[in-house]
């Protein structure tokens, strides 16, 4: 890696080996992000219970969060792979079996929340939880886990931005049996993602501790993610994100379509929250 003209060691896609098994930096950081997110949600669930009987219908307990998360991790990873394959079908036409080689790379984070929240909806039907309440509880954790996972992208040397001459520009070096090259000094968009996701996490965490209607934190997360991703894709365009439509990448098109929907729904929720007459019979949460 070259940082601002100073030579540093190469990327660290593999941290170390246990015998013949390589321990990948991306996988390690995703696991750390998942564990931090799980810790946060279990703490938030404990706080939200506020002395309520765990056996009471609809009470989301830390134990239930732990049970759901084990399957949820697999569902989220599956979602990232499925969306990546759908957006890059050309890569797999000649070798369809490569779809299953997830260890070679190729994940799109947009698939994680899509698949995960569908899974959460099924859990809500099973355990009689309110979906928006559970989604609010988990939304900040998504931002936290994502922030840590993007550090794994930086260590792996993927998802970087286009060339620039900024003081913090980074050159990413790649080397394997068939190819070896070093990029021009480029935007470290993985670290941009980490910074913006941490800001999102702190904003959502603070928001969740104030009185709010169920669904506000979830919609706030969607809105903030769309804003962050649209900006970040601008720096990745032409490098690790290609133009799809009207000069926008796939992710930018998706975010541009989703952001207005999230903001309108959030505005309607906040309007009802601020209207005293509309609060009769409504649900107002404060963690």
Can you walk through the features of this model?
With 287 residues, this protein is mainly alpha-helical. The chain has one domain. The chain contains 7 helices and 11 strands. A 3-stranded antiparallel sheet has the order 2-1-5, with no helix packed on it. A two-stranded antiparallel ribbon has the order 3-4. The chain has a two-stranded antiparallel sheet with strand order 6-7. A hairpin with a 4-residue loop joins strand 6 (173-175) and strand 7 (180-182). The radius of gyration is 21 Å and the shape is globular. The chain starts with a strand and ends with a strand. The model is unreliable at 1-10 and 277-282 (pLDDT under 50).
Keywords:
287 residues; two-stranded antiparallel sheet; globular; disordered N terminus; 56% helix; mainly alpha
Low-confidence stretches: 1-10, 277-282
Oligomeric form: single chain
For the record, the count of structural domains works out to: 1
Strand order of the largest sheet: 2-1-5
- The general outline is globular
Biggest sheet record: 3 strands, antiparallel
Share in β-strands: 5-15%
Topology readout:
Blueprint: E1 2-3, E2 6-7, E3 14-18, E4 21-24, H1 25-49, H2 62-87, H3 111-127, H4 131-156, E5 170-171, E6 173-175, E7 180-182, H5 189-208, E8 212-213, H6 216-236, E9 243-245, E10 248-249, H7 250-274, E11 284-285
Antiparallel strand pairs: 1-2, 1-5, 3-4, 6-7, 8-11, 9-10
Helix pairs in contact: 1-2, 1-4, 2-3, 3-4, 4-5, 4-6, 5-6, 6-7
